[in-house]
Amino acid sequence: xxxxxxxxxxxxxxxxxxxxxxxxxxxxxxxxxxxxxxxxxxxxxxxxxxxxxxxxxxxxxxxxxxxxxxxxxxxxxxxxxxxxxxxxxxxxxxxxxxxxxxxxxxxxxxxxxxxxxxxxxxxxxxxx
Length: 128
Hints:
- By secondary structure, the protein is of the alpha+beta class.
- It has four helices and six strands.
- It is 25% helix and 42% strand.
């Protein structure tokens, strides 16, 4: 089942910054990426997001203990609930892959990436 609708993917592609949260021993840990980085890595399966990972060392440690992930994307360029912009909170599980098909796909577009941050989206809620 596809969780990532065309509307969600449009918001992500037009988001300047996308924020991702994981849970760590000191509480929530936030990282960010550019929306167009995600948009360039379409997996085509309607549920998997890929993010080029240059750093994300704390995120990787957190995912090793608790693989839950939350992501926020929003853009004023896409109509939303109130017409002033659209935004979504996505939830799911994540992992960092330093080899395999997702890493290869990321490396083609982003040769500087040490790994692929793979997010399997399980839920989506429109916030804006």
